[in-house]
Amino acid sequence: MNLREALAGKEIIVVCGSGGVGKTSISAAIALEAAKERRAIVVTIDPAKRLASALGLDSGLGHKETVVELPDAAKGTLHAAMLDMKTAWDELIDKYSDSRHAAENIKANRIYRGISEQFVGSQGYMAMERLADLHERGDYDVIVIDTPPTRSALDFLEAPKRMTDFIGGSLLRWMAKPYSAAGKIGMRAFNFTASPFLRIADRVLGSQLLEDLSSLVLDFQNMYDDFKGRAEQVLGLLSSPDTGFVVVTTLEGPPFREAEFFVDRLVDGNLPLAGLVANKVIPPRFAEDGGVPVDRADELGSQMGLDPGRARDALEEARHALDTLSLLARRDVERLAELNRRSRAPVAKVPLFTQDVHDLEGLKRLARYVLEEPSEESSREAESAASAPPSGKRG
Looking at the chain, which terminus has fewer C-beta neighbours within 10 angstroms, N or C? Predict the structure, then answer.
């Protein structure tokens, strides 16, 4: 089975992995391929302009869903969006507040305006919130989520729980008590010297700032049940057979170990692992010991009109370069075998391209390697591409 077959019929595709392994481009490639037959959307967290350029969006990506122009042969549609944290938080406040007036009060709060983009687990939570909202709307057959780049690939999975734990935490409940006790007379009339903590906070922060903080805490406490219910709904979506997780990694040390850990976590949590994508792979033919005929330096130098000493130095450098390439290729062969043993799911291999993915043709080419076993001819093309010096990185 290849990754295309593993993702067939999935309504939600969660693309995850550590930072810098190519999640964003691979997410877009998967969504582009899905749009051949279905209504698809890709939501990214990456603000890099190269994705917008690859999708042909000269005006860039924003929080609002944008139509991507597809070839006439496509029967489906493709939209793209980039998560904007401030807008996402404002939409969340509008949704869960008791009234429009209450929502406007929260959004006018100085502390909320300052930290709405920095809440603990905020980026991961908002990615999952956007996923749940898109799924509820029913406008798309396939939703591809490019998860946030974090120190741990598990952060976004745990973000809903961390958010509800934060809002429902005992410290926040304790901080909200002064505001509740003040009741209708308001915080301005409340005695801030009632406790040592409030006395110090009043001196350091000032009464107005403390009032804003307490007000915000209480407002969030009032939305706790909504946050908790949404977190449970998101967990249900992620556990559904209609969802497929795709773990993206390179075969370098830290990303590879993170991918191994993530695969184990998905399997242990009974979350639907659809497959893995090993990106920037050195083709296996380079694992063979070819050798460079350094002992023929004089002969070759003479044929090329080079000084024998310079020819020997050049061949020596070439030998070292090929030895290094061979070592990396053998490492990739071993680690690909380990991923296959560990995951028991399709493992797609994407070669180290020599050019950035900068247009729809590049995304289509990438999708061929991600979703299906490449033909013998395309494999040879990939090996030729990998043997040339890379011209840039792919995100």
Answer: N
